[in-house]
Amino acid sequence: MITAEMVKELREKTGAGMMECKKALEASNGDMEKAILYLRERGMAAAQKKASRVAKEGLITSYIHAGGKIGVLVEINCETDFVARNDEFKELAKDIAMQIAAAKPLYVKKEDVPQEVIDKEKEIYLAQAKSSGKPEKVWDKIVEGKLESFYQEVCLYEQPFIKDSKLRVKDLIAQAVGKIGENIQVKRFVRYQLGE
Hints:
The structure is a single chain. The protein is of the alpha+beta class. The protein has 8 helices and 5 strands. It has helices spanning 4-14, 18-27, 32-50, 81-84, 87-103, 115-131, 139-154, 169-180, and strands at 57-65, 70-78, 160-161, 164-168, 185-193. Helix 5 runs antiparallel to helix 8. The longest helix is centred in the N-terminal third of the chain and has 19 residues, at 32-50. The mean pLDDT is 87.
């Protein structure tokens, strides 16, 4: 039996709508963790469907940290001006600006990393694999694993979210897409640090 208290609790944990929470709890037989996973998966599916839609509205958000020693400007796009003025969208923009200030990404997505940078990293990782004493047949796996770690360090979308390390930034954005109902994309950012 799904109670109103269970729906309320799930709603508080996820921010999803009441009917979505009720459906998630029914689909997971009242298991709160499974219901959260269900909502996340639905949010990801919704985000993938909306990813091809044009996001030409949005806002530019700034964030200043450490007593004026670090500053971030980030452009986040959505489909309508209505959503750009929405508090949830503004909160997402602020969280992403804080992420950039704290985690120092260099690129928005994996696709933005120049091929010459990837080639150089692969070259370094292959040399490390060769000198590790491990068999040649596992070198490619070592290189791929290290490259994935590199992406998590330098690509905003791949980074663990600073407020919840179980989520990547791209998952956070996908959840927002699921809630808000529009395509949302980080277009570009600049991070300034005093003395750099």
